[in-house]
Amino acid sequence: MYAYLDDGPHAGERMRIEPGEDGRPPRTVDLTGPDGDAARYELLGPHHNDDWWIYRRARGTGGGRSG
């Protein structure tokens, strides 16, 4: 299963993600941005098939600790 990161410091990146116990993609993905700040990405929906999912940076996760 793969994530496509739609925006934020990782915009355009693709990464492998592990499905949850239910076989679905995780609702959020937490990463560290290039500046060292936490960046949380939220699931938007499927990309072009069931193995690829689009994530967008969560609001309020710029600068400092994500919540």
From TrEMBL:
Organism: Pseudonocardia nematodicida
Domain of life: Bacteria
Biological classification of the source: Bacteria, Bacillati, Actinomycetota, Actinomycetes, Pseudonocardiales
Protein name: Uncharacterized protein
Biased composition (Basic and acidic residues): 7-27
Disordered: region residues: 1-35
